[in-house]
Design goal:
Number of helices: 5
Number of strands: 0
Order of helices and strands: HHHHH
Structural class: mainly alpha
Strand content: under 5%
Shape: rod-shaped
Largest sheet: none
Low-confidence stretches: 171-182
């Protein structure tokens, strides 16, 4: 009878140790998932702000230089498309480059107060975006390490966690070297 009690206690102890082990690893994953989700929200918010400012800047420039010509390839349609934050960010950079080119062609835009203010606002958002992207990518590195490391990989497979890509969309595990974009 006494040996049966020892076996039962040993089984209970093993189950408790495994439960604590599982909970610890689960919480570690959740910590990184929460961080990733929070910074993704901040990136999305900053991209939305940048989007709105670029549209305002585009309209002000069109009004100031008295043109009906489309300066940026109608980025307002981006809201309707189902594309990732990666792609929207790239499209906004392209649009801003076109706007900056137009600004360089018209010297009166360089001294316009509205244009200057919106340009500073975009620079502030870009600075925040760089910080958010850096934090996101650093967190992704740690998260992906957990997915690969023993014993975390076992719990990760049980929970069906997958590796995540960096903000630039680069998948480090494939052979496609052309998916790296600046």
């Amino acid at each position: 009878m006494e040996s049966l009690m020892i076996i039962i206690l040993a089984i209970i102890l093993i189950i408790c140790v495994f439960a604590i082990f599982y909970a610890t690893i689960y919480n570690k994953f959740q910590d990184y998932i929460i961080r990733i989700n929070e910074v993704e929200g901040k990136i999305d918010e900053a991209i939305r702000e940048k989007f709105d400012i670029i549209i305002k800047l585009n309209n002000i420039i069109k009004e100031k230089i008295k043109t009906k010509k489309v300066l940026v390839d109608d980025i307002s349609k981006l809201k309707d498309k189902k594309i990732s934050s990666f792609e929207i960010d790239r499209k906004l950079v392209e649009a801003l480059n076109k706007i900056n080119f137009v600004k360089s062609q018209y010297t009166e835009l360089e001294t316009d107060e509205d244009v200057i203010k919106l340009t500073y606002d975009i620079e502030d958002i870009d600075e925040s975006l760089r910080a958010f992207k850096k934090f996101y990518n650093e967190t992704i590195v740690f998260y992906n390490k957990l997915i690969r490391k023993f014993p975390y990989n076992i719990i990760g497979k049980i929970l069906k966690y997958k590796e995540k890509t960096f903000f630039d969309g680069k998948d480090m595990n494939d052979d496609d070297i052309k998916d790296f974009k600046l």
